[in-house]
Amino acid sequence: MTDFDEFTARYNRYRSALSQASETNKATVLDALAAAGITTVTVPFDGEGDSGQLGDLCAQAQDTTVEIPAIEITIHEVAWNTDAIATTDATLHEALEALCYSYLGHEHDGWENNDGAYGEFVFDVVNRTVTLDFYARFVDSTNFTYQF
To answer: If you average pLDDT over residues 41-48, what whole number do you get?
Structure first.
């Protein structure tokens, strides 16, 4: 096996473990939100120039904006370049952020680089879905050459 083949295999195992951890974390987070009576959480993000961050999380119970409860839950993590899934305790707010960063890294690794990207996550607790609305930024260039 070449170094590239070994790296590729290790990276694929890492991504598989990360997907597995994210799926478990999604269920745990949605269960905690449902128990708190929260129906929707919106999480904006923005990044460029090698820096990116999540915006303020907005939780709603039906049409009323509410606070995310300061409860701790157990979530799963995967350290870079491994396939070992570990558990850790985090607040619900931290778990939401970790899940968003995990989804961004999995679906659009490098979202914060160069011109970056922006968008938002919507956690629909009732339907048990997480939607990522992602807008990639890029510089476009068009050249016209004429010879007369």
So the answer is: 94
